[in-house]
TrEMBL record:
Record keywords, A-Z: ATP-binding, Kinase, Nucleotide-binding, Serine/threonine-protein kinase, Transferase
Keyword field contains Transferase: yes
InterPro entries membership: CLK_kinases, Kinase-like_dom_sf, Prot_kinase_dom, Ser/Thr_kinase_AS
ATP-binding recorded as keyword: yes
UniProt protein name: Serine/threonine-protein kinase AFC1
Any one GO cellular component localisation term in the record: nucleus
Domain Protein kinase, chain residue ranges per copy: 2-285
GO molecular function per UniProt: ATP binding; protein serine/threonine kinase activity
Amino acid sequence: MGEAKSASVVGTFGRVLECWDRQNRDYVAIKVVRSICRYRDAAMVEVDVLEHLAKNDKDASHFVQIRNWFDYHNHICIVFERLGPSLFDFPKGNKYCPFPVDLVREFGRQLLESVAYMHDSRLIHTDLKPENILLVSSEYVKLPDRKRSFSDETHFRCLPKSSAIKLIDFGSTAFYNQNHSSIVSTRHYRAPEIILGHWESYALFSLSKIGTSSHSGEALFQNHENLEHLVMMERVFGPLPEHMIRRANRGAEKYFRRGSRLNWPEGAVSRESIRAVKKLGRLKV
C-alpha cells in the first residue's frame, strides 16, 4: 500500500506510523496493533465502531476517518486519515502554555457534539482525555506572549491555526446494552460515578476536566488511587452528592465511614498523598 515514514507513536497497544499511500498519493496514519488477543479484539471493536459512525455521520466532522484495515502477520493494521497533534502533545511542545479560554470553549463545543452524537448512536467512548483528541491540522501561528515577556526579551507562544478537532481511539467503546467494565477511562479523567461502581453522565465530568486541563496547562487531579481521587474531588468541588454515595457498590463502600464521610486521612496510603490533597483549593465560581 505504501511506505512508512520515520515518525511514529508507540503505545501499549502497539504503534502508529505515518505512511505515504502510493496509490492515493496522500499521507495516512496506520495503527499497528500488537499480536495479543485482547488488543486484536479491541482493534476490531474500533473498526466496527468507526465504520458505523462513518456510515451515519455524513460529514465525518466528529471522528477520525477510517480508510481501510488489514491483518498482517497477526497484527491488525488500521489505516486512518492523518491528523495533527493531540491536545496533550501540542501544549507539551509549546512549553506547556495553556490554550486561550475562547479556544477551549470551541474545543468543548465540538466535544459535546461528538459525545451527544455517540450517545444518540447508543455508544460510549469510555476513554475521553486530551491524548485522544487530535487537532485536524498541524499548522500553527507564533504570537508574542506578553505574560511571559520580561525586559527587552520577547517570548512567543504557538496557537493552532484551526480549532477543528476529532476524537480517536475507539477500541474500548462500549454499547449501552452491554455489560460495562467496572473500571473505564484514564485515572486523571475518571468520573466519581466510575469509582463508585455505577454509570451516569460521567462523560460530562471527563469533558469538564479536559477543558480545565487545556486552559490551565496541567491535569486537575494528579492522583494514584481511588480514595485520594475522591477526596481531591471533594476538596475542589465540595461534598459528593448523597444519591451518588447511596448507589455506590460494595467494592466502593471501603472508601467511606460514618455514612457519607470519606475515610480520610485515615485511609491515605502515604503522607505524600495527604500533602497532595492539602495543596488543592476549592473551585471558585
